[in-house]
Design a protein that fits this description.
Elements lengths: L1 H9 L7 H6 L3 E5 L5 H17 L5 E5 L7 H17 L6 E6 L24 E6 H10 L6 H12 L1 H18 L1
Parallel strand pairs: 1-2
Antiparallel strand pairs: 2-4, 3-4
């Protein structure tokens, strides 16, 4: 996932805020080995508590290599996780962004290049500090154009380009194991 952040998200400016955090080494990569929903949700809240106590860490990629390979099951997890953040008093503190190898935007075909703006080597929840996101968005000229810019870039490059990038990133992570 670190290779994906550096070689895709940062390199191609998919997230214009990523470079600063990569260079500051303030991204936490937390691999969750649990695959049962209850255990994953417990780990998610524990990660929020970790972030509460470690302000030097800006954001966490909460990586789920097993158990959520199916996109619809993963979407169920995202919905439940968002509800849990509200239940646990984290509304307005953290927000989740979702990434999955089979990510598909509503209304897009599965093979649309646009989907690659949210495709990653493994299913992951990106835990974002809302205060930091608000500050970054306030300092960015026309932040509402980011998704359209990314989709246009993905469509120019095409699905094959991103398939190869993701394959290389996943291979990089498997080589480290």
């Amino acid at each position: 996932m670190q290779a994906w952040v550096e070689q895709v998200v940062m390199k191609y400016n998919i997230c214009p805020f990523a470079r600063k955090e990569v260079l500051a080494d303030s991204i936490r990569y937390q691999v969750i080995e649990h695959h049962k929903l209850e255990q994953v949700l417990t780990s998610l809240i524990e990660e929020c508590q970790f972030l509460d106590n470690h302000s030097e860490i800006e954001t966490t990629l909460f990586i789920l290599p097993r158990g959520f390979e199916g996109f619809y099951l993963y979407l169920d997890l995202v919905d439940i996780a968002n509800d849990l953040l509200i239940e646990q008093g984290y509304e307005g503190v953290y927000q989740l962004a979702s990434f999955h190898p089979d990510y598909c935007f509503d209304g897009e075909s599965q093979d649309s290049a646009a989907n690659y703006t949210n495709r990653s080597p493994y299913p992951a929840l990106h835990i974002i500090r809302e205060a930091s996101m608000e500050k970054a968005l306030a300092e960015y000229n026309e932040p509402e154009t980011i998704p359209e810019r990314n989709i246009a870039f993905a469509e120019r490059k095409g699905s094959d380009f991103f398939i190869e990038l993701l394959k290389r990133c996943k291979h990089a992570s498997e080589s480290k194991e």
